[in-house]
Prior knowledge:
5-stranded mixed β-sheet, globular, 6 helices, single chain
Amino acid sequence: IYGILSILPDTGESIYGGRLEGIEEHTISDEDFDLVTDLIKENEFVLDVNHNIQGKIINYLVYLEPETDVVLAKALADILLENFSDEQKSFFDMQIFLIVEEEVIEEEEIEDDMDEIIEEEEIIDEGEEIVEEEIRIYPKIGYKHRTSVNFVWTN
């Protein structure tokens, strides 16, 4: 019986184990979240913003206009860096998801609108089979570890 009990998970322990130690001393108020959300929403290319916190990770989901310049969109991460305290930034990891939801396109508009949706199209000839690869600008994910100063971005 001891062998079986030693391999079963301890259901009385948090799913995070001891990784959330000290989180009680590092709270983020609704006002802090609302301030950052409001500052992000001030940008004309931002459609909506959602945020949540999971364990020690602050997540922001930012929905953008389809034609938003990626450099401008990535600059939104600076709002997080400028408005959370140094203590909060050194305790929590942060992620910002930049998302463009594709609009529903009428069948006759597909050819006209494909240039707006697809940044680049590569056609690779592999023997008799032709493979089309679509490279899209979005989504982008920026991640900042608590020990880092800046965000690192997906390609």
